[in-house]
Amino acid sequence: MSQPIKSTSPPGDTRTERLAKWASSLQYKDIPEDVVQKTKDFFLDWLGCTIAGRHHPAVSAIAQFARQMGPSNGKSELVDGSLKFTTSPAFASLVNGASSHVVEQDDLHNRSIMHPATVIYPAALAVAQEVGATGEEFITACVVGYEVGCRVGEYLGKSHYERFHSTATGGVIGVAAAAAHLLKLNAAATLSAIGTAGTQAAGLWQFLLDATHSKQVHTGKACFDGIFAAYSARDGLLGPRDILEGPRAMGIALVPGETFPEAIDQNLGSDWAILSSSFKWHASCRHTHPSVDALLSLMEKNNVAFDDIESVVARTYQAALNVLGLSGAGETVHQSKFSMGFVLAVAAKKGQAMITDFTEEDLVDASLREFQKRVTMELDEEIESRFPKQWQGIVIVTCKSGEKFTESAEFAKGDPELPLTKEEIEKKTKALATYGGFTDVAHVNQLIERAWNLERETNLKGFIF
Amino acid sequence: MSQPIKSTSPPGDTRTERLAKWASSLQYKDIPEDVVQKTKDFFLDWLGCTIAGRHHPAVSAIAQFARQMGPSNGKSELVDGSLKFTTSPAFASLVNGASSHVVEQDDLHNRSIMHPATVIYPAALAVAQEVGATGEEFITACVVGYEVGCRVGEYLGKSHYERFHSTATGGVIGVAAAAAHLLKLNAAATLSAIGTAGTQAAGLWQFLLDATHSKQVHTGKACFDGIFAAYSARDGLLGPRDILEGPRAMGIALVPGETFPEAIDQNLGSDWAILSSSFKWHASCRHTHPSVDALLSLMEKNNVAFDDIESVVARTYQAALNVLGLSGAGETVHQSKFSMGFVLAVAAKKGQAMITDFTEEDLVDASLREFQKRVTMELDEEIESRFPKQWQGIVIVTCKSGEKFTESAEFAKGDPELPLTKEEIEKKTKALATYGGFTDVAHVNQLIERAWNLERETNLKGFIF
């Protein structure tokens, strides 16, 4: 393999080159207002997720690595202020990126099956802090990162996702593009950054089988590796020019099935990836969300209380039955979020299913466990026929009085069709901070206020809990 | 993919676990003398390669990244003393690992199609310097690194190598095992290190198509990522327990064809990977080596001089014809090493084909270009039938006097069957240092002397040119 082979693609003519050109030339003034707003929404949402995950043992180990291998007084900050050191962008993003995916409350881009926030924001924030970028420059870089990362994830497709953690493999390229933008790299250097990122793309699902810690490795390292790609490209390291579609590239090596090349560059600048990313509102498994939404709506509309309910039938799609069937009765807090019965019980009793609503105490709450037993799931062929384009849920509630109510949720709350309000994002952020053991409400309010005015920031320092 | 799935392998029963147990328990006293000697041989060979590659633009960019992202006064050293900073183990190995694969004179382990030295030595040296390991501890860790890395490469096999740069994907796991040994991790933590390394495994061949710089990224990052895996395992980060053979592991995701599971753990402690690794003696393409050896032997035996030769026929195997046919007449120094005619001309004229024997001046040497034209290659069916188990070459020389001589080389010089002598390794090291622009011969002699007595080192500081 030491012999160079001639390229078959004419220069300047690949989809990846068009994507790199677009990414390097995007300016803040070109970004529509709703895209800017969504970027701020997801930034705040990400910030809360990052503080919420800080006590995970993988995050502690990765923070220790950063402390031992990196500088102790860099320009980039850790969101967890209790760590009490600053470092270089690569290490700050390694730690923040690992932390922000722990509680699995970060956003989801459906079409690419990626969680873009957990890689794009930590990397862009760390680089922005180092180069002294403004809020506008930071927002622009994040929009670039979402766009490039999600488009790569969509190109790699479902068969890639079966084997690889797309948040990492698409994410590392989004990170490289976002960092390249903050470093003001031209199109050629951005293409190098994308190429060097892609040749580092990694992340296997094997850790799911024994509940080990690779998920944090994947998001943290996607940040580190993407930043490496951008900085080294700035300093003259050439990356492969066609890392997505080339004959020895990602599409061949990492995709056992079909790729979707048009996703790479179609509708650039008009179809914005960040607008089709979803918030996770409830803290439970995503497959329970439509049923939770339908149940809460039903209870409000019909003035039904927790104690009024005799039984619940949740009509759903097959994938929900498959996944939610695996966790038994929900013996641990984590498993309980994968039990439709327990999740609906929590939602019905508390009126919400936030991260602070699933605790050890709740696991032994007899009223929740009783309710849980009276919930059944049923396959609904009509709902199934529309999944995964639409994630619908129907609940049928029979009351102790004999009354019967039915309600449908066409989308999950947090989907692009049903986005969270500012107040809801704030509420979620506060719950995440509380979960992370941070109780200074005034400080949280200050950070929220800064996030809502992100475009006016003159530098990005101090997003620290 | 947020739902944990139960493991199917009973604990303590996988090949990977057996490999981790063996790796964590190996002691210096268990290592046969010839294995120790070979470890010292390849260490010196690696040291020369590292200084030779230091001026490559990718190495400069990576060194700049290390300078910007890492500390400036760590305990780990850069082999290129002109860089004038020390750093942490992860960054020192990133730079040294990138540098040592540039001139492609580092060793080759045939069965795994890997270059183990370029990843194992930089990582083990950097960690050894940080933990203050002795020469014996360093040698033991390197033996572990070779063993684990090469066995993983052999497990992944030829179909993996078609898509991935095995030196990186197997290498990162060898690095993790070597670093884990120096950190004195137990079997469980070593298994975590191996798992975390494997889920980061990456490195695509796409860069070959446009001669970009990913080769240096792959070797340097294999060092960095493997060190990350070992240190984070020490600090409690759990890696997947069956990253090689598990249902969502490397064997499924990164191997389109057959895997070779028995390679993982058969004959541990009796069949040593480092004993089956080969030196690269000549600086030309490996496929020219048997013919160079045969020609030099023929000229010596029969007292034939460069000017005596009218024509040369090199009889070889098909793969050599395929690869050596791609570079035309050899317009660049790099291409000239892939021209059988030019390489044999250089060898015949200079009596050797060291790295310093291929220069811009040689490209325009009329006597070399004349000779080159009088060399032809022919397919030899018998040689072909034994390739790649045996890399044989036959040359038939017709002299201007009319005399005709034939000589066969059964193996390439540097193969396990024909290892380099101490003097030859020293000569190669000096040529590599010269090529790297380092001219202090006394200093090179000192480093050589230290390498020959590596087991007596009390610390590994100062292997700096």
From TrEMBL, chains A, B:
Residues 282-454 form the MmgE/PrpD C-terminal domain. SUPFAM superfamilies: 2-methylcitrate dehydratase PrpD. InterPro entries: MmgE/PrpD_sf, MmgE/PrpD_sf_1, MmgE/PrpD_sf_2, MmgE_PrpD, MmgE_PrpD_C, MmgE_PrpD_N. One of its GO terms (molecular function) is lyase activity. Gene3D superfamilies: 2-methylcitrate dehydratase PrpD. Pfam families: MmgE_PrpD_C (PF19305), MmgE_PrpD_N (PF03972). Residues 17-260 form the MmgE/PrpD N-terminal domain. Belongs to the PrpD family. This is MmgE/PrpD. The lineage of its organism: Eukaryota, Fungi, Dikarya, Ascomycota, Pezizomycotina.
